[in-house]
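Final report, Chapter 2: Outcomes

The project's central promise was a pipeline that accepts a single protein chain and returns its three-dimensional structure in a standardized token representation, suitable for archiving and comparison. That pipeline is now operational. To close this chapter, we reproduce one record exactly as it appears in the project archive, with the input sequence first and the structure output second.
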Amino acid sequence: MPGASAATTPSPTTPHGTARSSRVGLAGVATMAGSGLSNQTGAALGSLAFPVIGPVGVVAVRQYVAAAVLFAVGRPRLREFTRRQWWPVLLLAVVFGTMNLSLYTAIDRVGLGLAVTLEFLGPLSIALAATRRRVDACCALIAAAGVVTLMRPRPSADYLGMGLGLLAATCWASYILLNRTVGNRIPGAQGSAAAAGVSALMFLPVGIVVAVRHPPTLAAAGCAVAAGVLSSAVPYLADVFTLRRVPAPAFGLFMSVNPVLAAVVGWIGLGQRLGWAEWAGIGAIVAANALSILTSRD
């Protein structure tokens, strides 16, 4: 600020400014860690309801929770949307629902760690496709090696589950691109909120059918709601806080930890143990993302 003295407004180079910056950085890292852990814990809790209401039922509840949270935050003015604004919102709603349904079905078939790692290929592909550097070509090869390791032919391989994980990755990549379009055409979080609301409406009849055919127990309903809160509400609000305080490259780098967190949560919470080959595949994909971001010139 012009006219402000160092005594009243600590600059980034003063001890007070450095301490404040350090506190902000630590708060951002703690928030990102908490967000990632919340997201994967929510997915693990949601999987506990699979035997009662199935992945479809859990996803339906998650869509309802996400819509409630985003509507409260975004407060979309739906009547003011134009046709040019509505079509990417509707596409985003379809992608949002498909992404969660394919991911949760993949979790049911191949486990939390592998499903989340395969889904993570979506944003990684977007990041690598946006550049023409040699190092990113190397990162793409490393990630591809990780995928081959995870999907190597073996008698127990569940290729449908892995395919659903890759479908979730495709949906996540589409989600990123569509969110960018929606964000450019609709102010604030109104577009995301509207998409979440449309997606919840799409899953309303699905939820009713699931509830009638497979009446949820109190425990199953609680796990599904917890999945919605921990995997939708908490990460969204945490990301809003984090992106205001942490540089985008650091945020993207920390996103790499999610597959590892998913594998650890699946191991500790669900007893889903991974072999050395699976850990090597996860490590290769995480390393590819980390290397791409650390060598970025931006």
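Archive annotation: The mean pLDDT is 82.
This record, like all others produced under the grant, will remain available to the consortium after the project formally closes.
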